[in-house]
Every structure is written in C-alpha cells, then in structure tokens.
C-alpha cells in the first residue's frame, strides 16, 4: 500500500504492464502501478532510482513508456486507453511531461566516495561490524577509520574510475531519418554531442563561437550535418559559406603537429627502414609529380579522414584516462611522457638536444628491440624463483583477513577487536567455496566441450544432420 | 645450454631449444662443412637468427682457418638492430659460461645518417643531405684547403679518426649503432668511418643488402672483405628484386630537367676554374692520359658512390680521348641528355634492347659505346677535380651517367622501356624511361663466386626450387623446416564465399563487383567482432584498397566496422602511415582494438611485425599478384621463360604466394603467439596456389578449412580463439615443441628431428 503521506499527482487508467491492465500512479516520491481490482502496488520505483525514461517513437503501433533504473533493469508501461491511439498518446505524454519535471529533482549527485563506502560496508559484514563497534561507539572517528592503510588502499584502488571512451562509430550511428517531405532528420542526444566535442575540439570551438550569439543550437547542428565535414565523401568546398571548412584545416594542423612531436618507434618508422643509396634521387623524389595528379582524391581524402577520426577518438579517450589515473604506469602514459620529453627538447632547440636524445632514446630503443627478440618460452624463469608472485583469488579476503592491521596497531591497546568479527570471518571461510567444492572439469576439457557444442562443433554437426533429416 | 651439433660444440644462449632450431643448425653446419651455398626456410618466429648466429660463431671459433668472417645481411634497419642485440646476447652467454668473451668483434655498418655524430650534420633529416654535408667536411681537397687556411671547416671527428683510429683495432665485443656512436664520441672519432674501417678486420659484420649487392656501394664499402667468409642473407624472400633494383635505372622528365641544370652549373664551374686554376684541369687530363683512371691516391672520403657496374665488367683501359677534356666531356654529356630527352618525347610505348638503344644513340647523336662506358667514372673524376663541395644536388646527373655506363656495358638481361604516360592516367603525359634488369642472377653472381658459403634464408621461401633457378646457383643444402607445435597456434583458412554463397575473389573480372566487395566487408566486420585486439588486412594493391574503402563507406561497412574497432589505413605517404601505425599500436595496447588496412608489397607488409595482440588475425583479400600489365614485368617474364625455362604462370603464382605468405606470416612471432590467417579468395584453394605456401602454413591448412563461407569461418575462429585463450605453460610445450638438453640428446628426439627436415 502506498503511504498516505504521498500525494498522487496523476493517475492514469488502462495501463498495461506485463500483460496485466492496471493503473499508473505518478506520485511525488515514486512511480507506482497497481493491477486492476487489487490494492497492492505491483510496481514501485523511487524517482531517485530512475535513470531515464524512454518513449516509443511516434508512429509505432504500441504507445509505450519505459523507465530505466540505475541498476540497469527497466519497466515498460503500455498505454491501452480504449479511446484510440490519440488518447493513449495523450495519456503517455502527460506522464512523460510530469516525469520530465520530477526526475531531475531527484537526480541528486550521490557522493561517489560515500556511495562506495556504503557499498563496501554492505558487502562485508565484518567491516560493517567493525565500523559499528569503532565509529558509532565513538572509539575512533569516521575519518580515522577510513584512513587505515588497508582500507585506504582498498578505497583508492577502486576509486579510480575509468571514463568511458568514445565509440568509434558515433558519427556513423547518427542515422538520418526521412521526415517524409524531402528532408532528413537527425537525432542528436547529449551523449553524441559530447562525443563530437570531445573528439573534434575544432567543432567545440566553433560551437562556442557561434552559439547562441550568431545562430541557434539547432541551426548550428543543421549546418554541421550539411557540411562536408560530416560527410566524408564530399570534397571540401572552398567557399567561405561552409562553417566547418576551417575545422578540417584545423584538424589537419593538429594531426600534423602531433606527427612532428611524436617520436616514432623504431619498429614503425617506415622512412628509416630502408637505407637509401647515397647521392641518387630517392624513389619519392622521382615519383613526386605523379602523386600530385591523383585522380581519385575523394577516396584518398576519405582514407585520410578515417585515420584522423580514429586517431582523434583514441586521443579523446586517452586524454580523460591519463588525467584520471596518472599513477597507473601503463604503456599509454609512458608514451605520453615520451612526448613531453620530446617537446621539451624541441623548445630548447640546440645544445641541450644532443645529450637528451642520447640519454633517453637509445634506452627506449634498446628496450623495444630486446622486447622483440625475447623468446619467453626459451628462457628458464630461474630469475623469478626468489620473488614469488603473490596470487590472490580474492583480494578482499587478503586485506580483511583476521590478522589485519587495525586490530593490531592502534586499536588493540585500548579496545580489543570484537570476537564476533573473527567468528564471522571464520564462518565466511568455512561456508565459502574454498572448502566444499563441487566437482569440476578442467578448463581445457570445459572449453573443448563448449567448442563441440557450439555451431560447427562435432556434437552440433550431428545434431544438425539429424534435424535435416 | 651447450649442445653438440654434429660434433661441434655450440653455445646456445637459452635454457631450452626448439627442435627445428636444432635441425636448422644441423643443415647449416653441413653447408659450412661443404663450403657451399645453402637455401633454408624456417617459419618466422622460431628463432632463426639466434640459431644462425650461435652455430656460425661456434664454427668460427673452432675452425678459425675455414671460416674467418661472417657477413650478415638483413633488409631493414630494425632487423639489423635486432641481429646485433641477439649477437650481444650470445656473447654475454659465452662470457657467463667461459668467463671471457669470445675473441671476436661484431660490427654494424649503416649509412652516414644513422651513424653521424657531428652536431650539425647529424641534424639533417634526409640521408642524402647528410651524405652531402659529410662529404663537404671530409673530402681530401677540403682537408688540404684546411691545411692552408684554418677557417675552412672540417669535421673534427673524422680528423680524430684519421689521426688515431686506424692504428688500433676495436676491442673484442659487439657494437651496435649506438655503441659505435658512443665509442666514437668518447674518442672523438667518426663512427661511420670507424665502422667502414672496422668491417675489414671484424669477424662479424652486420649490414644491409645493398652493401653487398649493389655494385655502386659494394665497390666502395665491401671491396676488401675476406673471401673465406659466410654470407647470410636473412629475410631473403625478396632478394631477386633487390638484385634487379640495384642494376636498374628510372629516368623521368624531372631527372632530365635537374640534370640539365646540374650540367650548366658544372660548365660554369669548369669555366671559372679554367680562368683561375687551369693547372688543375690539365693535371686531371694528364692523369687520364696516363691511365691513372682512379688516381691511386684516392681517399676513402672522396667516393660516395662507386661504378654502377659489377667489378668484372669494369674496363681497365685508358679513358677514351674524346671525353678526357673536361669541356669535351660536359658537351658529350649534354648531347646524351638531349638524346634521352628526345626519346622521352613520345606518344606510344617503346621497348628495345640495349644494343638497339646504343645503335640509335650512335646514329642520332654520334656517341660511341666506349666513351659511354666510362661516363660514370669520368663524372666521378671530374667532380673530384672540380672539388664540388656538396655533390647531393648533382644526383640526377649522376643517375644519367649510370644509365650511360650500364646501357653500354650490359647487352644481355636488360631491356629499355619508354612509357609516355602512366597506364592509370592515360591523359597525363608523364614519360618514364626504364632501364630495367631482368636477370637477378647478374648482381648475385659475384657474391656467389667470391664467398665460400652463401646462406639464403627466410620464413617464406617456398617453393624452394625457384630460387636456385632465378639466382642461378647450385645449393649444397636446400631445406624447409616446419614448426613443431604443442597447440595449433596458427589457424589458416581459405574463405571462398560470402554468407550469400557468392564466390569471393580479387580476380580482375569480379574484383569491382559489389557483391564481392560487400562480402569482403562482411567478412572483415564479423571477424573484427569476434577477434580481440588487432586485426590486419592486406589488399592486393593500393588502388584496390582505395576503391574498396570507398565502396565500404557507401555500403555502411565502415560504420559497422567502427562500432567494433578503430580503423586505420595505410596511405602512400610513409610518414602518415607511420603515425597511423603508432596509433594502431596504441589502440591495441589500450584494449580498444583496431583494424589496419594495408597493402601487400607495401612498406607495412615488408617491415612491420604484428606480434601477439597487435595481430590476432590477418586477412588477405585476394591474391597479391603483381600488376601483370606492367611492361617491365612482361619483359622479365619473357626473359625468364627463354633463359631459365620458368613458365610465366609459375613465376607469377610463386611471386604472389610468397607475398601472401609474407603478409600472413607477420602475425606470428614465436610459439607462445597465436594468430588467424584468412586467405579470402576462391583461387587460394586451388592446388597450384595452396602447394606454394610455406610448409609450416600448409601443414595446418586442412582440407576442411579450404572452402569456407564467411559464417563457417567465423564459427571456427570463435572456437579456436576460446581454445587459445586458455593458459599455456611450458609443461605443455616441453618434449613436443620445446626441448631441454636431455630431451634433445635422447635418441628418439634425434631421429625425429632427422626426419623433420624436409629436403628437396
């Protein structure tokens, strides 16, 4: 039952949910649905849980509204007003508009850290127990609790959120729809616009320059979709009308400068691969003329644009990554570092160039070569014998095990750890998969069996033949 | 480990060994014992280089009188660097187990551009400019001038080397390019000339093919190398083309224009000198009369390029009278250039023999054969006399004299083809004169004759019997090794039809067919959806790549491809391609995955490795036949048929298949690596094509994998990838594809290895 304290803002009859007709209530705290002639609420979503709402496109036979929750599940409501599609659409739009106004109010940004901490506590009863014992009983304050080394490491390591990159196909995914009268309609969402801005800084700049002073948002994007910049198979028009003609040039410049400032790996530097015969004109020089008279520059241009697009997409996602987790020493960041060094060298431009080049370049190069000639299976791994790598199947268990640090250091003297915590840990151990393990097949056999069972496998072939008969 | 190969104690710097490495060493030793030449094919990524090095080094140490030198030639600069690092590894292993490094020196020789440490000169980006500037600082007359006037700049590093460098030898050890530079910088010696000097005495020399095969360079650099040497050509599947290129000349209108300019400049200089210092010209004249053609005092720094013809063809005669005088020679050259210019002014294709060309020259501009033969050396002598500070702007003129010398020296095995325009653009006049060598054995012959053992080796040499024919030699050993594998780490497949059952093929009639292009696209999209990380595709030509990408964009294939992976495409600009490549690697490493579209025979296919996650799948779209309408190719095919009894079709298929194998072989490096190889063309399944693939690929290309549709191929891939993703440990490999010393010594293994060698 709904609590009486809640006001029903709107109730819509004839709403079908999972094949049952009922009533949809839009209340001030939640969205609820009740089956006809029942008095229990079958569906109830708090607005805070709802991520977005979606509606079925106009022209579809079914008039529907879907709400997507933060945990990924969604509920779909089908409007079946006997008054016909128009009445249904009206019903739906009412709900939609109301929700549109309500949802943002509840979209409070939960503090990421807090959320993470509460999740951690709810996942680990022992931790929660400790928290209750220590913090709530005011033995230590909350900050101290979370700052203990083990927990800190735990919270920080998972704190680094990886920002989702940009899909390589985001431009292609904007499929135009015909609106029936010789026009095209592009659906732009905020995500796509973000992706465009992130990948093409030049467009963002244009956007800042033009919107909203010189043209409206809609005009801007209309121009964008009309430009050659969006249509890669069109050749850049030299007319100044095209708003984005400049963007292509800016991109070219950006790529060209990136090209100059990137130290090429020796394994990919194609120009340095072959040693040329001294003094004689090189192949490129001789064929210089031919290149200029290219006949299908559309394709060539397109290929160039594809490369640029991929490079920029990659750059867009890398920028956000490296700024987020600067402490992760992946190869990506080392590449970035490299670039910085190179730039630094470029600026000084002279005497200091040589030593810098000498010190960094050969080491990098040598590392790369050694990597290439290394045969991991030919070398015995005796070097690693003394440094045995610790392999943990469950990191939390290692960090939160009974012999863990808080209990020994600061706490032990004043306040012994509750025995119940230990007991619960032990219980978790004994009931965990560690002890009673169901009979398993080896990985290899499992994969083999899976393979045989997938289409084309030995077992499936038989099955296929049988069904053919 | 220390192992015995047929009685020879070999230090092998690893604890385990692949059986095929041992087999390879066995064969190699036979060639060394017999002092004959050999042809060995072993899959890429099975440690060919280290097997070669450890056996030959061991052989040199134990039989110092039979083999005194190892000359290791590789194709690209990265390959050369890798060889040196492996050699270093080996030396370190010797040191570890014997207490001291072997008494051998290993040196690398590379171009001035890679070795120069002069602060100004080395900053030049182009090799040609480095050569020119170096010459301007080190030529003997510059240094003479410096003696008189110390304001004339010279290179301190060369001076340092010249003073002290030649007295001592390099200490034993291996010197990479960086080591050479460091060694030079420490002593104030020029690393380039140090390397040039060191290769004469060093026991192990590593450099690129040109230094041995191109007569222009070989004469300058490799003249004094010991004959009792083993020469190894690694990655030699393309060696015939290197030979041909080193004796061929291509003249465009641009070359003519530039050489006319250069000629005018020379004339001016001659006139000036005639006024100021006529004695110098007279002295040169006297020398030429006396027959001191290459004045004995010639210094190492004065010649950058030698004679373009092979040493046995060089005439030991006095320069003919009509070109002895500098002015006469220049007007002689002028006439010749004018003649070539008129020949370029044509409307239709002309093909003629060198003899016909010579006859025409003599009837039209009255130039005889003999003075033409001296053209190249006469120009070199003149340039020395005139003391041209920077010879790099004379390059086109040098090229013309090379043409003159070559055309008048060789009458057999060469052809001249003049094309008024490119076949692709018949409207644009772009005349080119090709002086083309058709016989790869010409440049190779002196090498075979001079050195006692020449080993030609690569991952893809199949069919082996083609090479002795086209290079014209008799190998004492000729073997192909397979790869022993504990798990099927390559998956070759021939996809012959799309999911709509339309046959896919890049043959001329169907290659532009929408259905074929769509099916290619679909194959790629589906593969990129199920293959992790990097996928590399090779097209038969750049033109085809362009048109397919255009069609794919229209069909929406590109869009669906971008949904799965980032797309990178090789372009004709190599700097652009390098940048795309480095981003491709980044994309693979960051886990995004990427697709690289590339071209067979292109720079990527020849030099870049896509090991591990950089290339989980390679797709070969079509059979990479060489452009068969090319007249140069046709001439070569005719020549091969007449002189070597090689049928046209055989050669074309051989050439196409070695490139296809080269492309797909890029994906595999080592036995822990794994990769899918898709041959997407119906014609691959024909016996004549399939049988020309290297044995190690053929072995895994079962009949059931030879006629697949896109869907079937994708299913098989999925299954195989799941299998490959399982942990793979050394224990799985041991005894099968990896041996310990004990296992190696067991009789059973020995027999197995003996059997494994497939001899032809």
TrEMBL record, chain B:
Listed Pfam families: DEAD_2 (PF06733), HBB (PF06777), Helicase_C_2 (PF13307)
Enzyme class: isomerase
Compartments reported by the entry: Nucleus
UniProt key word GTP-binding: no
Signal peptide: none
Gene Ontology biological-process entries: hair cell differentiation; nucleotide-excision repair; positive regulation of mitotic recombination; transcription by RNA polymerase II
Lineage: superkingdom: Eukaryota
Gene3D superfamilies: P-loop containing nucleotide triphosphate hydrolases
Coiled coil: 249-276
Cofactor(s) of this protein: [4Fe-4S] cluster
GO molecular function terms attached to this record: 4 iron, 4 sulfur cluster binding; 5'-3' DNA helicase activity; ATP binding; damaged DNA binding; hydrolase activity, acting on acid anhydrides, in phosphorus-containing anhydrides; metal ion binding
Helicase ATP-binding domain span: 7-283
Reactions that this protein is recorded to catalyse: ATP + H2O = ADP + phosphate + H(+)
Keyword DNA damage: yes
Xref: InterPro entries: ATP-dep_Helicase_C (IPR006555), DinG/Rad3-like (IPR045028), DNA/RNA_helicase_DEAH_CS (IPR002464), HBB (IPR010643), Helic_SF1/SF2_ATP-bd_DinG/Rad3 (IPR014013), Helicase-like_DEXD_c2 (IPR006554), P-loop_NTPase (IPR027417), RAD3-like_helicase_DEAD (IPR010614)
CDD domains in alphabetical order: SF2_C_XPD (cd18788)
EC annotation from Swiss-Prot or TrEMBL: 5.6.2.3
Main location: nucleus
GO cellular-component term (any): nucleus
Keywords of the record: 4Fe-4S, ATP-binding, Coiled coil, DNA damage, DNA repair, DNA-binding, Helicase, Hydrolase, Iron, Iron-sulfur, Isomerase, Metal-binding, Nucleotide-binding, Nucleus
PANTHER family: DNA REPAIR DEAD HELICASE RAD3/XP-D SUBFAMILY MEMBER (PTHR11472), GENERAL TRANSCRIPTION AND DNA REPAIR FACTOR IIH HELICASE SUBUNIT XPD (PTHR11472:SF1)
Family (UniProt): Belongs to the helicase family. RAD3/XPD subfamily.
Listed name of the protein: General transcription and DNA repair factor IIH helicase subunit XPD
Species of provenance: Bombyx mori
Organism lineage string: Eukaryota, Metazoa, Ecdysozoa, Arthropoda, Hexapoda
């Amino acid at each position: 039952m709904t609590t009486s304290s809640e006001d029903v803002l709107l109730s819509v009859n004839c709403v079908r949910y999972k094949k049952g007709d009922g009533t949809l209530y839009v209340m001030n705290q939640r969205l609820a649905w009740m089956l006809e002639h029942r008095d229990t609420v079958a569906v109830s979503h708090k607005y805070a849980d709802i991520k977005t709402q979606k509606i079925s496109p106009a022209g579809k036979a079914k008039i529907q509204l879907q709400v997507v929750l933060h945990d990924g599940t969604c509920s779909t409501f089908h409007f079946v007003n006997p008054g016909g599609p128009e009445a249904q659409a009206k019903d739906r739009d009412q709900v939609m508009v109301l929700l549109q106004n309500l949802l943002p109010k509840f979209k409070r940004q939960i503090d990421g850290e807090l959320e993470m901490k509460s999740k951690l506590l709810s996942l680990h009863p022992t931790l929660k127990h400790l928290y209750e014992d220590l913090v709530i009983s005011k033995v230590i304050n909350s900050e101290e609790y979370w700052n203990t080394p083990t927990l800190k490491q735990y919270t920080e390591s998972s704190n680094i959120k990886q920002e989702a990159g940009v899909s390589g196909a985001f431009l292609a995914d904007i499929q135009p729809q015909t609106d029936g009268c010789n026009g095209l309609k592009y659906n732009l969402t905020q995500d796509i616009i973000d992706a465009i801005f992130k990948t093409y800084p030049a467009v963002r700049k244009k956007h800042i320059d033009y919107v909203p002073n010189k043209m409206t948002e809609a005009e801007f994007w209309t121009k964008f979709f009309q430009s050659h910049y969006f249509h890669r198979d069109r050749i850049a028009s030299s007319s100044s009308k095209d708003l984005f003609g400049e963007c292509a040039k800016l991109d070219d410049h950006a790529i060209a400068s990136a090209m100059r400032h990137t130290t090429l790996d020796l394994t990919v530097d194609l120009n340095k691969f072959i040693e040329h015969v001294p003094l004689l004109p090189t192949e490129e020089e001789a064929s210089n003329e031919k290149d200029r008279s290219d006949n299908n520059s559309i394709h060539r241009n397109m290929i160039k644009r594809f490369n640029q697009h991929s490079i920029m997409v990659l750059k867009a996602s890398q920028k956000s990554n490296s700024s987020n987790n600067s402490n992760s020493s992946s190869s990506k960041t080392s590449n970035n570092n490299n670039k910085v060094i190179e730039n630094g060298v470029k600026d000084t431009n002279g005497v200091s160039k040589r030593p810098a080049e000498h010190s960094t370049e050969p080491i990098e190069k040598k590392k790369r070569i050694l990597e290439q000639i290394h045969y991991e299976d030919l070398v015995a791994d005796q070097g690693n014998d003394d440094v045995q790598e610790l392999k943990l199947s469950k990191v939390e268990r290692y960090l939160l095990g009974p012999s863990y640090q808080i209990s020994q250091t600061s706490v032990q003297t004043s306040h012994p750890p509750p025995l119940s915590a230990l007991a619960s840990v032990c219980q978790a151990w004994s009931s965990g998969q560690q002890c009673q393990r169901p009979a398993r097949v080896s990985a290899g056999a499992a994969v083999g069996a899976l393979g045989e069972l997938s289409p084309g496998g030995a077992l499936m072939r038989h099955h296929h033949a049988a069904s053919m008969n | 480990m220390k192992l015995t190969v047929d009685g020879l104690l070999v230090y092998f710097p690893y604890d385990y060994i692949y059986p095929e490495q041992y087999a390879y060493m066995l064969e190699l030793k036979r060639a060394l014992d017999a002092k004959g030449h050999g042809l060995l094919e072993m899959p890429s990524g099975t440690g060919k280089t280290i097997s070669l090095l450890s056996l030959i080094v061991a052989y040199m140490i134990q039989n110092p009188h039979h083999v005194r030198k190892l000359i290791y030639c590789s194709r690209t600069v990265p390959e050369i660097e890798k060889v040196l690092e492996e050699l270093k590894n080996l030396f370190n292993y010797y040191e570890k187990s014997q207490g001291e490094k072997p008494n051998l020196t290993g040196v690398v020789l590379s171009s001035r551009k890679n070795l120069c440490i002069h602060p100004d000169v080395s900053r030049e980006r182009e090799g040609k400019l480095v050569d020119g500037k170096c010459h301007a600082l080190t030529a003997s007359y510059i240094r003479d001038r410096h003696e008189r006037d110390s304001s004339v700049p010279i290179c301190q590093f060369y001076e340092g080397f010249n003073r002290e460098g030649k007295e001592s030898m390099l200490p034993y050890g291996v010197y990479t390019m960086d080591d050479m530079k460091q060694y030079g910088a420490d002593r104030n010696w020029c690393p380039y000339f140090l390397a040039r000097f060191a290769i004469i005495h060093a026991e192990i020399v590593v450099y690129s093919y040109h230094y041995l095969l191109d007569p222009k360079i070989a004469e300058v650099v490799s003249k004094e190398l010991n004959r009792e040497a083993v020469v190894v050509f690694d990655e030699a599947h393309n060696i015939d083309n290197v030979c041909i290129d080193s004796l061929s000349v291509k003249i465009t209108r641009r070359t003519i224009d530039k050489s006319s300019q250069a000629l005018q400049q020379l004339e001016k200089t001659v006139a000036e000198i005639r006024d100021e210092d006529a004695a110098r010209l007279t002295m040169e004249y006297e020398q030429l009369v006396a027959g001191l053609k290459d004045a004995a005092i010639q210094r190492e720094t004065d010649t950058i390029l030698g004679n373009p013809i092979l040493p046995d063809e060089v005439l030991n005669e006095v320069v003919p009278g009509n070109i002895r005088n500098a002015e006469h020679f220049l007007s002689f050259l002028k006439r010749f250039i004018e003649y070539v210019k008129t020949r370029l002014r044509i409307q239709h294709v002309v093909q003629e023999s060198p003899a016909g060309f010579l006859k025409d020259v003599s009837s039209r501009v009255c130039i005889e054969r003999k003075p033409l033969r001296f053209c190249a050396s006469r120009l070199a002598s003149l340039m020395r006399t005139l003391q041209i500070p920077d010879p790099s702007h004379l390059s086109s003129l040098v090229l013309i004299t090379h043409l003159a010398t070559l055309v008048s020296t060789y009458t057999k095995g060469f052809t001249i083809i003049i094309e008024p325009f490119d076949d692709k653009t018949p409207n644009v006049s772009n005349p080119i004169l090709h002086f083309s060598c058709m016989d790869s054995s010409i440049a190779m012959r002196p090498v075979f004759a001079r050195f006692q053992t020449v080993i030609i080796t690569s991952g893809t040499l199949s069919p082996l019997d083609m090479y002795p024919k086209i290079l014209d030699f008799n190998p004492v050993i000729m073997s192909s090794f397979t790869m022993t594998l504990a798990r099927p780490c390559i998956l070759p497949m021939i996809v012959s039809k799309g999911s709509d059952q339309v046959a896919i093929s890049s043959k001329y009639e169907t290659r532009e067919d929408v259905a074929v292009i769509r099916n290619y696209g679909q194959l790629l999209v589906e593969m990129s959806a199920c293959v992790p990380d990097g996928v590399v595709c090779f097209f038969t030509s750049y033109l085809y790549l362009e048109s397919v990408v255009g069609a794919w964009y229209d069909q929406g294939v590109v869009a669906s491809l971008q949904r799965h992976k980032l797309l990178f495409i090789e372009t004709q600009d190599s700097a652009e391609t390098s940048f795309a490549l480095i981003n491709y690697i980044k994309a693979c490493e960051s886990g995004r995955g990427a697709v690289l579209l590339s071209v067979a025979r292109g720079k990527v296919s020849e030099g870049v490795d896509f090991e591990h996650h950089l290339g989980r799948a390679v797709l070969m779209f079509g059979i990479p036949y060489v452009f068969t309408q090319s007249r140069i190719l046709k001439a070569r095919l005719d020549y091969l048929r007449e002189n070597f009894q090689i049928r046209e079709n055989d050669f074309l298929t051989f050439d196409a298949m070695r490139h296809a194998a080269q492309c797909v072989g890029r994906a595999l490096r080592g036995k822990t690596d794994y990769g899918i190889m898709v041959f997407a063309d119906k014609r691959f399944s024909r016996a004549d094509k399939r049988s020309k693939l290297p044995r190690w690929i053929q072995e895994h290309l079962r009949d059931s994998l030879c006629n697949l549709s896109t869907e079937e191929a994708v299913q098989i891939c999925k299954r195989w990838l799941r299998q490959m993703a399982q942990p793979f440990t050394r224990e799985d490999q041991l005894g099968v594809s990896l041996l310990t010393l004990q296992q190696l010594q067991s009789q059973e293994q020995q027999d197995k290895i003996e059997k494994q060698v497939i001899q032809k």
